[in-house]
Amino acid sequence: MSTAALNPLVDGGAESPKETWLRLLLIDAGLPAPTTQIPVLDGYWPVAYVDMGWEKYKVAVEYDGDQHRSDRRRYVKDQRRLRKLEAMGWIILRVIAEDKPDDVVRRVRAALITRGWRP
C-alpha cells in the first residue's frame, strides 16, 4: 500500500495502539470513520473527551485497557464520567481486549442505527 493510500487512515488522536486498532476495525467494517478525542461539552466546558465516536449521533467507543479495571481510583473516576456522559444523552460502548471484533462491530453498528445512521 502506498503512503498516499495510507494518509486517510492516519489519525493523531489515538492514545494507544489498541485505540488505533479499534478505529481501523470500525472503518474496515464499513462504518463511518469515527472522530477521535471528541470533547463533550457541558455548556462551554469539556466534561470529558471520548476516545472516538460520532458527535452527530452521540455515540462513543472507548477502549478500556487493564488500568481501567485494576486501578480503583481510575475505575471510580471512569464510572462517574460514564454516568455524566449518559445523562447528556451519549451512548458509550466500552471495548476490552477480550471482546471479539465481530461483536464490537455489531454493537457499534446497532448503536449508530439506533441514533439514525443508515448504512
From TrEMBL:
Domain DUF559: residue ranges: 50-99
One Pfam family in the UniProt entry: DUF559
Organism: Mycobacterium noviomagense
Protein name in UniProt: DUF559 domain-containing protein
Protein origin, superkingdom: Bacteria
Coiled-coil region: none
InterPro entries per UniProt: DUF559 (IPR007569), Restrct_endonuc-II-like (IPR011335)
